[in-house]
Amino acid sequence: MGSPLGPLMANTFMCSIEEKLESEDKLPSFYKRYVDDTLAAVKDISTATTFLATLNEAHPAISFTMEVANNNKLPFIGMELTKIGKRLETCVYRKTTNKGLLLHYQSHVDARYKRSLLLTMLNRAHCLSSSPDIFAEEFDNLRGIFLKLKYPEKLINSTITRFIESRNQQQVRDVQRNAPVQIILPFKDQRSANIVRRQLSDFGKKINSDIRPVFTSKKIADDIRVAEAKPPLINQQCVVYKFKCDLCDADYVSYTRRHLFQHIDEHKHSAIGNWKTPA
Fold first, then answer.
1. Residue 226 has pLDDT above 60, yes or no
2. Residue whose C-alpha is closest to residue 106's, from 151, 50, 58, 43
3. Which of 82, 86, 146, 172 shows the smallest number of beta carbons within 10 Å?
């Protein structure tokens, strides 16, 4: 068993060399490394060959080999990159010698490890597939592999269904989390609005949220009391009326030359005053 410090020390060693090459402007514009596998984008084979020589000359202990794309396809760490025009597609890569040998369902291993293997392979397919169609194709491949390993079809289908549902729910949560947070504020003037907008933007960057102010102005209608709709009779003058008072339970039949609503108001105030007067 190798030391767990081995990969850490190797990565530290490579980082020191890459920092030196970067300071000398010898690294390509696109350069990504995982442990000892490096993916780089260069303009032609000649440039790639020159960069390979630069890597191997950086230290006597380094010995890199190079693999170039074939038919616009290049395998890299269990993934195949395909160049289509100006975009890249990715999918799970399996060597031609791959026999699909994984944990057999009839092996004497706890069932949770078998379910975990299913989920691990599904998650790997999801991470390496650049589109839903490629993801679905890899699902079919995994289904065939696990059926050959005697996994129950019901277990395979239920695991796939739960995995897809969990991913859909996660996507919904991600969308909700990334949705802008709107704060409603009264509008005072443009200068104040610009200051508040800038302050909220700075605060949002600190908490990794998109905070946007929504300014509202006061409407004239808010200050104007809407008059209660009244029957036309209320505003008429010189009428004979019958009025039932809901304060003193009395009926009145009378005549007034003024507006009817004025006469009724006076009666109500009079009734209230009578109630306040002790008997």
1. no
2. 151
3. 86
